[in-house]
Amino acid sequence: MLKVIYGLCNSHLELASKSIKGLVKAEAHDMDIVDSLALHDALLLCSRLEKFGFKAGTDYGVYQCGARYGLMIKRGCSLIVNPILKDLQSMRMVWRIASTILREWRYMFGKCGGDVYEALDLAYRVMVMRNRLSDKKCPSCGKVSGTIIKEAVHGRDYSIYTKKICCNRREKTILRPWRAQENFRAC
Q1: Mean pLDDT value of segment 125-154
Q2: Within 10 Å of residue 41's Cβ, how many Cβ atoms?
């Protein structure tokens, strides 16, 4: 899957798997640390580093932290690793939201054809909207402050409730799936 999705070749994957098998002791001197990686995430990051010419043992090292893995990366490697970490975090967020949506839909409406894709699409739009709502300035006072976000699935709709910490301004945003409501009831 890593070869297909990320365009990695066998040699980079082999070098990455060798670096994961040859774990190092965690001694961070002028290095960034990425903790709590699953095996496939660590393999992806190591193979991307190998693809760009970085070497295990000198530019990065892999260590075990519980049942998961950690990565010590020289600061120059962070430019390659940071976008991948953001993508992995976004994928996990979409998966978490989509599984919540799908669980609720299947409880209420039963299994419908295409509901997995519909839930993934809605979950991605929810994640984008959450980011937009948490980053925007408060409409009341114009300050940039923290945002408390709560979410709920109501039938086919996904509601996002936000509260700005600066002046307690509350907003409600409702996102709906792309298909019409009547088509879902026919499933």
Answers
A1: 92
A2: 18
Could you report the per-residue pLDDT of 102-135, keeping only the tens digit for each?
999 999 988 888 889 999 999 999 999 999 999 9
Strands 60-65, 68-74: pairing kind = antiparallel
Sign of CA dihedral 19, 25, 29, 32: positive
| Backbone dihedral region for residue 44 (phi beyond 0: left; psi -120 to 50: alpha; all else: beta) | alpha
Closest CA to 43 of 27, 30, 62, 58: 62
Domains of the chain, residue spans: 2-83, 111-185
How many residues are there in the chain? 187
pTM of the prediction? 0.70
Give the C-alpha separation, 14 to 3, whole Å.
Answer: 12
Q: What DSSP string runs through 19-82?
A: HHHS------SSEEEEEEE-HHHHHHHHHHHHHTT--BTTTEEEEEETTEEEEEEEGGGHHHHH
| Coil vs helix vs strand at 148 | strand
Q: Is 21 exposed, middle or buried (0-12, 13-18, 19+ CB in 10 A)?
A: exposed
Distances (CA, A) of 36 to 6, 39, 41, 57: 21, 10, 10, 20
